[in-house]
Every structure is written in structure tokens, then in C-alpha cells.
Amino acid sequence: MPKKIVIIGAGIGGLSAGCYARMNGFEAEIFESHTRAGGLCTSWKRGNYTFDGCIHWLTGSSPADSFHDLWQELGAIGKQTIYNHELFQAYRDADGREFRISSNVDELEKHMLDLTPQDEGSIRRLCRLVRKFTHFDFPQTKAYELFSLFDTMKMIWKFIPFMKEYNFCNNTTVGEFAGSFKDPLIREVLPRIFGGPEISLLSLVITLALMNKKDGGYPLGGSLEFAKNIEKRFLDLGGIIHYRKKVEKIMTSQGKATGILIKDGGEIMADYIVSASDLQSTLGKLLEGKYRSPVHEELLEKVPVFPTSIQVSFGVKMDLSGGHDAITFSRKMPEPFIIGNEQHQWLVELNYAHDPNMAPKGSTVLICFLQMKDNTFWENLYADRKAYKEEKRKILETVTDQFEKIYPGFRDNIEESDVATPMTYVRYTGNRKGAYMSWLLVGKNAQKYQVIPKRVPGLENLWLAGMWVMAPGGLPTGAKTGHDVIQMICRKERIRFRTDKV
After folding, report:
1. How many domains does one find in the chain?
2. Is residue 477 part of a domain?
3. I need a surface site. Which of 24, 70, 78, 391 has the fewest CB within 10 A?
4. 357 and 220 Cβ atoms separated by less than 8 Å
5. pLDDT per position as a tens digit, 346-402
6. Residues paired with 261 in a beta bridge
7. In a domain, 53, yes or no
8. Pairing label, strands 4-8, 27-31
9. What strands lie across the sheet with 267-269, from one edge to the other?
């Protein structure tokens, strides 16, 4: 009789674990508190418009990348067409001067040299790094925890050509590298590209390298369709998903996880539990704080997470398909504006005119995405629902005013709108601090937490999946950790780990 794996959470990590469990002959049931799968990988309808809340670019969108195999095994892309933007990002300062970050490194280099020839040295160095890491690709077929000496030596051998550049990028922050430029626009903008000045240069370089090899495309149809593809794959494999089933507790006995307790009082017994939910909730609530995990505790107490965000979405009866083909277009507004308790001057726009699935013909979905530093403000405000709703109204009005300055007539053509705050993400997914990515690892921490434990000390048969056990988070880490925990369970059961592609 096949052994049973119960999975907590139907985000990408949980769905991935479920798919690989079924591929390897386990019974698999997912318990999800919400009404649909995907977790943070989601979109939502407002009238005739679809507002996307997740994928801006997708690592592994190209068949040339090893990560593409995981998406194929999960049936993730399905029939969705991959769209590759001409520009990764574009920035325009208040004087109209533009810095265009092309997805093609040769075009990026030419543009930067034209924009600021006095920074030739730093420009050449950045583009050399991007070209170098365009060839940086490691197979994703094996969990790092299962590496043999041969696997490790093979990995080191493949890594040697990148060692010098890797060490430089990993030990240099984007802020430090930006300081090598004389041009004020580039000095200001580079730290904004990928989360802030404290981010390692490696994150920026690898992202630009993904774009350069067309491995950071966007699946037309958006995030929810992407998640539904994996959900369908799991169901087609014979898995079972229980929606509106909130897990209250992971049951244990004699140092082993034995099952879960559902909110309505039902007990579900299992041979293995995979928790693909928020790490803090798993350790604190579901395990009632009974099992200490020093590494996880250190992460939760001492390591910062990526900034949370506010997303303001509009469905407008305007054709805004002209202009830059950039994933994000940021404009420095003439005057600062206030969002919540924080001052902003850069208006970050995502224009979905390239995706015909998002809006009726002749109309456009336009999204403003703003990173926020202070989640405590939103936690406190949320306690007063009237004040919270009023703040959302003010945000909508403020962002509408900013877009009206860019697109005259914008206000009168709004047909649908929506404001998602950090507390929206907390309510929807239970994620700590409403984070859409996980740990902000720089310098020595990047090495220290390169492999985050997927087990809880002293407790057998419980495994952890999802972005909190693989920095920096995002959809690929969900897929990879789901794959890896099932591979480790197979090793424990002495079963040959199997995969198959759709």
C-alpha cells in the first residue's frame, strides 16, 4: 500500500511537492485554506479586467535553461505563450532623461556608453559580468542535501570559471557598485532595480544575464493561469486538493509528525507531512513552538526580508500600447507623493498592453507597484478597518493623480481599480510581513544560508518547502523545494526518484 503525504498549502511549493509525490507513487493530499491554488502566484478579476499580482518575469522560461525542465515536469507553462520584453526596465528622471535597461546586453552597453561616456570603465565591467553569467547554469535535478562527494566536485568544476566574478559580485552591494558611476541618474537608479542598495551585485547581474539569454519571459495569460496549469497537473496525476481547509496543528507523537488537525476538528493521519506554508506560522502556530530550530530562529529574528509592497491596479478604457516595451517603466515625478506613511517620488508602472488576455480590446491594465519599508504601519492600521479602508481610498486617489499627469484623461477612463496593501498579502497567504519574496541575504549571510534546512530538529517525517527555505524566494524556489523534499523522502524510503514531463 502506498504511503501518504499530506501537504499544507497549495502555493507553488505545495503544488510542486504534490506533483512529485504522485510521480513517485505516494498518495498525496493538499490542504489549502483559500478557495484556489497558487498562493502568491495569482491574478484577480475586476469586471472585464484581470489584474496580475505575481509574475513579472519567469526564470526558466527558455528551454535552454535547466530550470525549464522543472516547469515542464510540473506542466506549468502549458499552452501559454512566452513573451520576452524588449526592455527589462526603464527610468526617466524629472528632466526627461532616460536610462533604458535593455534585455540585450549589447544594446544595454551601447545605450549606457551614449548616455554617460565618462563611466566607460564601470559600464564595461557591468556588461562583462552580464555576458559571463549568461553562461551560468547548473542542473536542478538533485537536492543539494543529497549531493555526494562526486556531485560536489562536479559542481565545483563547473563553477571554477565563474569563481572570480562570483566572489566579486557576491561581496559587492549594488549600492557600492552604483557609487563607481559619475552619472547621477545611474547612481540613483541601479539600487532601485532589484530591491535596494544593500542587495548583492550578484542578484542584479544574474537577472540581467537571464534577460540577455531570453530566459526571463512572461507567460501570456498571467500568474493565475500559470498556477492553474500546475494544479491541473497535480489533479491529472491523481492528487487531491481540499480547499477551505485551514490547518490548525501538526500532530506529533514520540518525535514524529503523524498528521494534521483541521479547523473543523478533523484529524488527517499521514506518513509524511510537507509544510509549504509560512515558516514562522509552521514553527510557532502549527507546531505550537515545541520544536526549536536554531537556524530558522536566527533567520526569523536577525535576517531582514525583502521589502513588502503596495499594488494599485487600473483597468482603463484607453489604448496604452505605444511607448516602451519594458517590464517596468519608472518615472521620477516632479514632486514627491505620500503613500501610507512613506514618501515616494518614483512612480513604477507595469503596462499589460502586451497581454491581450488582461483587458478588452482598446483598453489597458495599468499597475503601479511600490515597495514599502514599514510593514508595522500597516499592521497597526489594519486593526481599525475604517481607517484602513480610508487609507486605501487615499492611495487610489494619489496614484490616479500621478497617472493623470502622464496620461491626460486617465481619471475619466478608469473602469475598474483595486488597491492591494501589505495586509492584503498577509490576509490572502498568511505570509510573514506580507513579503512577496523571502530573505534579503548579502555578504557572508549569502554563503551561511545558501542551504536552509528543510527539516525541523528532533522531529521526523516533517519537511519544509517554499520560498522561506530557499532564498531569495520567488516561484522558482517554490518549485525547486517541492521537488527536493520529495526526492529526499524517496531517498529515505529507498525509492528511485522519478520525474516525467508533460
Report:
1. 3
2. yes
3. 78
4. yes
5. 999 999 999 999 999 999 999 999 998 888 899 999 999 999 999 999 999 999 999
6. 249, 267
7. no
8. parallel
9. 247-253, 256-262, 267-269
Domain presence at residue 181: yes
Residue 21 sits at the vertex; the CA angle it makes with 20 and 25, to the nearest 5 degrees, is 115
- Contact between 372 and 422 (Cβ < 8 Å): yes
Residue 90, classed as helix, strand or coil, is strand
- Short-list 137, 19, 10, 135, CA closest to 70: 19
Taken in order 142, 204, 171, 280, the sign of the CA dihedral is negative
Q: What is the pLDDT of residues 102-140, one digit of tens each?
A: 999 999 999 999 999 999 999 999 999 999 999 988 778
Lowest mean pLDDT among 163-172, 282-291, 430-439: 430-439
| Mean of per-residue pLDDT scores for the chain | 94
pLDDT exceeds 80 at position 174? yes
Cα separation, 181 vs 187, whole angstroms: 6
Which runs of E-coded beta strand occur in 184-245? 216-219, 240-242
**What percent of the chain lies above the pLDDT cut of 70?**
100
Confidence of residue 306 (pLDDT cuts 50, 70, 90): confident
**Dist. CA 16–CA 128, nearest whole Å:** 36
Q: Are residues 127 and 193 in the same domain?
A: yes
Dist. CA 195–CA 205, nearest whole Å: 13
Q: Which residues pair with residue 344 across a beta bridge? A: 337
Contacts 24+ apart (CB under 8 A), 255-263: 255/458, 255/459, 255/460, 256/459, 256/460, 256/461, 257/459, 257/460, 257/461, 257/462, 258/461, 259/6, 260/6, 260/8, 260/31, 260/286, 262/31
Strands 272-275 and 462-464: parallel
Task: Determine the structural domain holding residue 391 and report its residue range.
Answer: 308-433
For residue 360, give the amino acid letter. P
42 has a pLDDT exceeding 80:
yes
In-domain check, residue 280: yes
